[in-house]
C-alpha cells in the first residue's frame, strides 16, 4: 500500500457530505425485478442527466416497468455521500477509479452492481494519421492525477513508453518511465494546454472534454487506450450501490437497460463515437474496485 495522496479529495467529500440537504428515502420495494405489468420507481443520481443517452435510458426503463426518478447533480463530490445517506438508491456517474478513491478516503464500502461505458482517451498528432515518425518526440500529457497515469498507459499500450520494473501498473507517473527503453518522452502540462501543444504540431494525449472546444475530431487519434485492456479497467463507468443492494434484481435490470441498443446508440451520439460499452461481471468489477481502494489507502 502507499500513503494516501488524496487528502484534498477526502476534505472535499467531508464538506460535500456536511452540505447535503435532506431528502426522503422512502421508495417502493425494488429488491426484485418488476413482474409483467408491475411498476417500480428507482431514485438514481447522475451528473449527466442532460445527455441524450439518459433520455433514451429513462424511456427504455419505463418500457420495462421501471420509472427512473433522476436526481441531477452539478458536480461529483456530493453524489457518493447522497448514496451513503440513502438519499438516492443507485448512481451512475463515476469510474471505478473515482469510487475507489471515495471508499478509501471516506472509509466507506460502496459496491458496484454493473458496468457502463468507457470513454476512450486518445493520442492526437496534428496532420498525422499514424504513429510513423513519432520516435524521439515529446508528448504532452495532462498533469492532473486522474488523467496523468492513464495517459502514460495510453503510450504504454501504443508501444511508445516502457515503465520501470517497480512502477505501479495502473497509476504510473513520469518518474516511473524508463527513458532509455522508451521511444518518446512526456511533458506534463495543464489538461487545457494539451490542445495548444497539438496545435503547435506536438503529439498530445487530450481529454475528451477539450477535444470539442478545440475543434479536434475524436476519430483522428493516432492511438487510444484499449477498452478491454487491464490498464483501462479503472476508467470503466459503473453503477454504484450500497453494499446491501449489490444483488438487487431491479438494479441489475437497470444495468441491462443501459447496455441496450437504444441507449448505446444515444451514447455514441453524445460522445461522438468515443464511448464504448463494456460488459463485465459485478464480481470482476468489485475485485478491481477493491484492489484500487487498497492502493489509495
From TrEMBL:
The gene is metQ1. Keywords: Lipoprotein, Membrane, Palmitate, Signal. Transmembrane segments: none annotated. Its main location: membrane. It comes from Corynebacterium glaucum. Gene3D superfamilies: Periplasmic binding protein-like II. This is D-methionine-binding lipoprotein MetQ. Residues 1-22 form the signal peptide. It comes from the Bacteria. The keyword Transmembrane helix does not apply. Pfam families: Lipoprotein_9. One of its GO terms (cellular component) is membrane. It is a lipid-anchor. It is found in: Membrane. Belongs to the NlpA lipoprotein family.
Amino acid at each position: 500500500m502507499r500513503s494516501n495522496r488524496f487528502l484534498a479529495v477526502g476534505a472535499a467529500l467531508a464538506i460535500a457530505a456536511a452540505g447535503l440537504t435532506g431528502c426522503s428515502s422512502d421508495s417502493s420495494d425494488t429488491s426484485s425485478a418488476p413482474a409483467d405489468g408491475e411498476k417500480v420507481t428507482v431514485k438514481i443520481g447522475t451528473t449527466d442527466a442532460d445527455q441524450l443517452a439518459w433520455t433514451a435510458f429513462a424511456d427504455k426503463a419505463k418500457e420495462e416497468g421501471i420509472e427512473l426518478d433522476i436526481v441531477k447533480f452539478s458536480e461529483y463530490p456530493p453524489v457518493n455521500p447522497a448514496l451513503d445517506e440513502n438519499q438516492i438508491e443507485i448512481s451512475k456517474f463515476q469510474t471505478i477509479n473515482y469510487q475507489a478513491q471515495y471508499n478509501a478516503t471516506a472509509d466507506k464500502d460502496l459496491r458496484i452492481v454493473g458496468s457502463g461505458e468507457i470513454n476512450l482517451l486518445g493520442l492526437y498528432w496534428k496532420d498525422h494519421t499514424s504513429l510513423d515518425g513519432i520516435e524521439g518526440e515529446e508528448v504532452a500529457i495532462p498533469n492532473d492525477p486522474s488523467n496523468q497515469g492513464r495517459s502514460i498507459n495510453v503510450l504504454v499500450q501504443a508501444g511508445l513508453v516502457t515503465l520501470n520494473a517497480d512502477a505501479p501498473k495502473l497509476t504510473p507517473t513520469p518518474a516511473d518511465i524508463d527513458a532509455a527503453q522508451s521511444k518518446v518522452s512526456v511533458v506534463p502540462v495543464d489538461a487545457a494546454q494539451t490542445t495548444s501543444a497539438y496545435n503547435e504540431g506536438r503529439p498530445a494525449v487530450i481529454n475528451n472534454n477539450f477535444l470539442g472546444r478545440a475543434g479536434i475530431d475524436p476519430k483522428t487519434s493516432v492511438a487510444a487506450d484499449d477498452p478491454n485492456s487491464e490498464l483501462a479497467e479503472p476508467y470503466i463507468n459503473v453503477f454504484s450501490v450500497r453494499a446491501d443492494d449489490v444483488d438487487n434484481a431491479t438494479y441489475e435490470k437497470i444495468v441491462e437497460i443501459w447496455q441496450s441498443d437504444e441507449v448505446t446508440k444515444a451514447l455514441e451520439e453524445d460522445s461522438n463515437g468515443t464511448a464504448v460499452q463494456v460488459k463485465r461481471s459485478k464480481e470482476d468489477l468489485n475485485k478491481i474496485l477493491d484492489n484500487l481502494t487498497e492502493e489509495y489507502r
